[in-house]
Amino acid sequence: MREILPVLARWHAAGVPFGLATVVAVSRSAPRGPGAAMAVGPDDEVVGSVSGGCVEGAVFELAQEVVAGGEARLETFGYSDADAFAVGLTCGGEITLLVRPVTPDSDPAFGAVAASVAAGEPVTVATVVDGPAPRGATLAVWPDRSDGTLGASGLDVAVTADARGELALGASVVRHYGPHGERREDAVTVFLQSFAPPPRMLVFGAIDYAAAVARIGDFLGYRVTVCDARPVFATPKRFPAAVEVVVDWPHRYLAGTETDDRTVICVLTHDPKFDVPLLQEALRRPAAYIGAMGSRKTHDERRARLTESGLTAAELSRLRSPLGLDLGARTPEEVAVSVAAEIVALRWGGSGAPLTTTAGAIHPPAA
């Protein structure tokens, strides 16, 4: 959804109605997760994807129908091997889509939501999926304000509280309420889609490997910063335009930088005078991934120094070193793929093993 919002914002600002299909629930090996979106706009222009190609043709027609009829629809697509001509997923999973018309009248806050996402301002959009409330009605919730209604004041109050809680976690979930927001009822189904600012990737050591890791981090949607104490290496021209480059001692920069449970820290400095104080700081703060480059000998020496510095076994267990998966990588670009693969595997609980050697669902439920 985040990727197609700039296009949708232009349509909305121009007063052009469009059909928006959003994945609100998945099961088994679904190809896209909740929040994935596809829209059909003027001149049948299509942006986004909800299944990687399996059901997009059917969704295209649904989007046209809801724009023409003005009513939102809820549709489920599953595996269709019983009927070779049925429209369904080929992967064996199941997705449920909310397909709704979006116009300036039906969703006046849409432009403000798109502007907030573009500016990195956190916002959650609550949308009625099913039940005795207007299907497709939306309520946009920011940390300090809200806009829109789901049809009942009590429901708005309950959903606003939950939306702010999910926004703090950066989570998108389905919640159930009574018609007036009752917590112990499940008559109304509401999808809460959170747009938290992009997670951070902090790369320390402005070497060739850092440039490759920064590029792939930017590609994966991270807000990337490269930091090095050596100004001759930390020059913006060596890195992608979207990457922030900072000249500072790594441990000092990290000490003054906020991190959270989504932050990725890659230590590529390869020098004890930088590595040790930096990892002392990193391993004692929130982060999703902390990896350090180096040979196994370098790793053993680094770990001994960190132990001598007072880090506990639990703190040291968070360190991924040598960083990356065993791909046989040689070039900076190949190493960057190895590092990215480990980050993705750790995020979703993947094993890193070839799929040909594994069994079960390819896309297991997220932890």
Automatic annotation (TrEMBL):
InterPro entries: MoCofactor_Util/Proc, XdhC_CoxI, XdhC_Rossmann_dom. Residues 11-78, 117-178 form the XdhC- CoxI domain. It holds the Pfam family XdhC_C. It comes from the Bacteria. This is XdhC family protein. Residues 201-343 form the XdhC Rossmann domain. It comes from Streptomyces camelliae.
